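Hello Y.,

Per our agreement to keep a running log of every chain we model this quarter, I'm adding this entry. I've kept the format consistent with earlier entries: sequence first, then predicted structure.
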Amino acid sequence: MGCGCHDHDDRHGNCVCQVVRAIKDIQDNAVEEAECAECTSCFNEPLGSLVSPTRRDPVDTRVFVLSTADGSPFHAFFSGEGNACVSIFFRVEDVFDNCCATLRVLVPGRREGGNFVPVNLVSSGDRCCVDLTRVCQVERFRASNDCVTVDLKCFCAVQCIADVDLGICNA
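Predicted structure for the entry above:
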């Protein structure tokens, strides 16, 4: 089921597709309600409860990562941030047809003196691979203008990272 785009029986669905659809629904129905969540999960509602069930700050995005069949994080490119141009972090914009999705690439960053500083996730000596030690430096996100369309059946795992306010609805 899912991993590597192998043929499978669509009657049983695809868990990555179901999770991304749920994230989209949660983002679309963001409401301010306090709920007690026992386990951090992509299915936690309302939006904002992933980080703190009593959070009162407005949020509009559930940040997530997708894993490929070999367990490595799926990555996409974005433009306009100096030497940082690869991200593994996404926001779902749309889910359509048979588990296809449009994902907004999120710029990974950290806080330095109150400013957002992009984190370059690519190893300095290797231009193709994500340096997983740099992923641990990421503590903030910013929306890029870059999107990618993917077949969700080609992924084996989805992990939700954070609920954040990217100002998507204010743009």
